[in-house]
Amino acid sequence: MTGLLINYYETAAIVLFGVGFTTLMFHNNLIRKIIGLNIMDTAIFLFFIAKGYIEGGEAPIIRNGFKGVLHYVNPVPTALMLTGIVVAVTTTAFALGLTVKLNEKYGTIDLEKIMEMRGNKNDK
């Protein structure tokens, strides 16, 4: 139990990922699925940034001599997550654009209703 309290950023990231995953899997509304995907993205970003953080660490800019590896925060997870955020935003924009087009074509954003309509078209 103490491990969960010490690593509360990682614990929060795991809980957020679970919330996003259940939202993605159990809702038929496409907007809710996109929101679930965004929650999962945010959880992953939080997890990796928390792993790269060092308590009391400084930015890896060497001034007044090198202080040792453990004194500096690792910049790689932060840089990777910055790239991930850009990818997540573009994926969200693309998914929302597809949702708008699906709504224009089928008149709904409910995935089950869209699949029923597509099934009826294929039967004819």
UniProtKB/TrEMBL annotation:
Main localization category: membrane
Record's signal peptide: none
Keywords from the named record: Membrane, Transmembrane, Transmembrane helix
Keyword NAD part of the UniProt annotation: no
Membrane topology listed for this record: Multi-pass membrane protein
Location within or outside the cell: Membrane
Transmembrane stretches, start-end: 6-27, 34-54, 79-100
A Gene Ontology term for the protein's cellular component: membrane
A Pfam family hit: Oxidored_q2
Annotated PANTHER family: ANTIPORTER SUBUNIT MNHC2-RELATED (PTHR34583), MULTISUBUNIT SODIUM_HYDROGEN ANTIPORTER, MNHC SUBUNIT (PTHR34583:SF3)
Family affiliation: Belongs to the CPA3 antiporters (TC 2.A.63) subunit C family.
Protein name per Swiss-Prot or TrEMBL: Multisubunit sodium/proton antiporter, MrpC subunit
Species: Dethiosulfatibacter aminovorans DSM 17477
Lineage of the species this protein comes from: Bacteria, Bacillati, Bacillota, Tissierellia, Dethiosulfatibacter
